[in-house]
Write a structure and sequence with these properties.
single chain, 210 residues, mainly alpha, 9 helices, 0% strand
């Protein structure tokens, strides 16, 4: 492996750095975008049970806000539960936009890596071919050993750049879709909370909010 990196020339260094960054982002996003962490199940039901039992207080709202991205959105709605339906929805939407932006953290970086690593590989190809033609100019074409270094640099950097770009692009698209799904789920849960608190939805089987 070291010999391949060495043969690829100095342009292998930014390509390797991009691969390390991409791997770190993928691992971090897989951990951060777990569904149970972002959208805990039955959270609206739990909130309604607190309300029915008279247990909803500032401490529970604070715990809810700190527990998950969905909890942060719902906590904003609960803080404004005595306001009008429109005000409650507006505050929830504002918090939802901030949460959505946070869920997309590092995805632009991952997309940039997917875009620039093939270009770095192409640059390595150009540098390698320049080296080949410089050798041809100096010693002619009768020394294949002299030409091999430039050719290998051109091929190795291209292969390395594409090898990093393909998985980076795949995971970038995957995480974009996952964020969209999570945002949609959070939006639906927030709508349920608004409708339950404002008396437009049955909170639980056989029970209507007062």
């Amino acid at each position: 492996m070291f010999e391949l990196v060495k043969a690829g020339g100095w342009l292998m260094l930014p390509i390797i750095a991009c691969s390390v960054m991409a791997l770190a982002i993928v691992i971090e996003r897989f951990w951060t975008l777990r569904r149970r962490r972002v959208v805990p199940p039955r959270l609206v039901v739990q909130i309604w049970q607190w309300i029915q039992a008279g247990e909803l207080d500032d401490a529970r709202i604070r715990t809810l806000r700190e527990g998950s991205p969905l909890g942060r959105i719902l906590a904003t709605g609960l803080v404004n539960r005595h306001s009008s339906r429109e005000v409650m929805k507006e505050t929830i939407e504002e918090t939802g936009r901030r949460v959505s932006h946070e869920l997309e953290r590092f995805l632009n970086t991952l997309g940039t890596i997917a875009a620039i690593t093939p270009l770095l590989g192409l640059l390595g190809t150009v540098v390698g071919m320049i080296q080949v033609f410089s050798v041809i100019t100096a010693v002619g074409v009768g020394h294949p050993g002299e030409l091999a270094a430039g050719i290998s640099q051109a091929l190795i950097t291209t292969a390395a750049g594409i090898s990093v770009a393909i998985p980076a692009m795949i995971f970038h698209r995957y995480f974009r879709g996952r964020v969209d799904e999570l945002v949609l789920d959070m939006e639906q849960e927030a709508i349920k909370l608004v409708e339950v608190l404002k008396g437009e939805r049955v909170a639980a089987p056989g029970v209507k909010p007062s």
